[in-house]
Specification:
heterodimer, A: ATP Synthase, domain 1, eight-stranded mixed β-sheet, globular, B: alpha/beta, 6 strands
């Protein structure tokens, strides 16, 4: 029944928006988003929720009319996801398509972070957060190859 | 002859100036369109953030008995806390270039007003200025500028604005500043831009949905129409805590975008006026030149006639 809703459109609408522009607006079969505590998959008819995002990859499978061979990967840095009525909205400060990730640059950034000294509780938590983000970026970049 | 030639020279130079102003007008028009597109594209982000806030507020209004509801409406966050102003920050957004009418001077005037106000209240001010024009104008007026930005042209990027925003958030959280005002040119429409001072920190609390909207939501829920019962991961409170800095960033970014758009509009209007004025000048100079030339010819004819008369005698 759900398949015939909205003039026979199938799948889930997926929108990724950043402060500068709406990066992506497409329909897909399945979307996997990096929530703050791990990846979560969203298919058609998912219960509505609002969640905080971590750093990681958004994986979009079965994109309609997509030229990327069925799987599109986009790296995002934090933000929020809103799921409702077969629509997934990802609001993030930064999004980079997986093709544009640079593993070498990501690795050197991580090395730099590791080498920098940090003192005090706040500095240490901030550093751990940054390191985690850098690691997630590196993971995403390496997966590309 | 001398007078006519001088007039002709002036006419030529005005014509050249008109060419330049006309070109600048066209460039400003093209840039304005681009800047406008960016500004429109960025609106989506703010709207969607606002929608999430609305959902949180609606969830808390609908489920008044839920513990989450109470947390959402009665939430507190350091960014929302209004403290007595002991030290404040002012960010002034001007352009790097002139020839745009009153754009820069309006901002400078506005900035001086607020800086003067803080000075008279004996409040310490951390002043940041973006744009060459504002920096030199304020320096000339004896304002101490703590931070200068020159990197913003007609396409401010979020990655450029984010570090500035973050430093303000950190300073606010650490209690180094109790307030942040941004002096910029707000873009209302293509015919209306106003130099304004806007307080960005402390943030204004997100509005709870109005009575009518709440009723509509309640009705829809009663009819079982909407499955608008959002779940929140990890919790509404935690999402609010994250959303507030994000919405601050978005608002700060919007100030930069608005300034960029307004600058192009101001330049467009100023250059259009300049071109038109040059056109009027050319017309006037042409008329005077023709008259001068004609009177010179008449004079010469009179001289010849006089000569002929003299020879006849």
């Amino acid at each position: 029944m759900a398949e015939t809703k909205r003039g026979g459109e199938t799948g889930v609408r997926c929108v990724i928006t950043t402060p500068e522009s709406t990066v992506l607006d497409t329909r897909a079969e399945f979307i996997s988003v990096p929530l703050f505590d791990g990846q979560r998959g969203i298919g058609r008819g998912h219960a509505p929720f609002v969640g905080r995002l971590g750093v990681g990859e958004v994986r979009i499978t079965g994109e309609q009319g997509g030229a990327t061979g069925g799987l599109r990967r986009t790296f995002i840095e934090g933000g929020f996801v809103e799921v409702g009525h077969d629509e997934v909205t990802i609001i993030t400060q930064r999004s980079i398509p997986a093709e544009k990730l640079d593993a070498a640059a990501a690795r050197s950034d991580l090395e730099k972070l590791k080498a920098a000294p940090s003192r005090g509780d706040e500095a240490i938590t901030a550093r751990m957060r940054n390191e985690e983000a850098a690691r997630a970026l590196l993971r995403a970049a390496e997966r590309k190859g | 002859m001398a007078k006519a030639r001088a007039l002709d020279r002036r006419r030529k130079s005005v014509k050249n100036i008109r060419k330049i102003t006309r070109t600048m007008e066209l460039i400003a028009t093209a840039r304005f369109k681009k800047a406008m597109d960016r500004s429109v594209a960025s609106r989506d982000y703010t709207l969607r953030l606002a929608k999430i806030l609305e959902n949180i507020a609606a969830a808390s209004a609908g489920g008044a008995d839920g513990s989450e509801g109470g947390a959402a409406l009665g939430f507190s966050h350091p960014l929302l806390e209004v403290r007595p102003t002991k030290r404040t920050a002012v960010l002034v957004l001007t352009g790097n270039r002139g020839l745009c009418g009153g754009y820069n001077s309006n901002i400078v005037r506005q900035a001086q007003a607020i800086l003067g106000q803080w000075r008279s209240e004996k409040v310490g001010v951390h002043t940041s200025v973006s744009g060459k024009r504002g920096i030199s104008a304020l320096k000339f007026r004896g304002v101490d500028i703590d931070e200068r930005y020159l990197q913003f042209e007609d396409k401010p990027e979020f990655d450029q604005v984010a570090p500035i925003g973050r430093s303000y958030l950190e300073a606010y959280a650490a209690g180094e500043i109790d307030r942040l005002d941004v002096v910029y040119t707000r873009f209302d429409s293509i015919a209306r831009q106003a130099a304004v001072t806007e307080m960005l920190l402390p943030l204004k609390p997100p509005e709870a949905p109005s009575g009518a909207a709440r009723e509509a939501a309640a009705k829809a829920a009663a009819a079982g129409l909407a499955s608008d019962d959002y779940d929140f991961y990890p919790s509404a409170q935690s999402i609010l805590e994250e959303i507030l800095p994000a919405s601050f960033m978005a608002r700060l970014f919007k100030c930069f975008l608005d300034s960029a758009v307004s600058e192009q509009v101001a330049r467009m209007v100023a250059m259009k006026a300049a071109s038109e004025n040059a056109g009027g000048l050319i017309k006037d100079l042409s008329r005077r030149y023709n008259r001068a030339r004609q009177s010179q010819i008449t004079g010469e004819i009179m001289e010849i006639l006089g000569g002929v008369e003299a020879l006849k005698k």
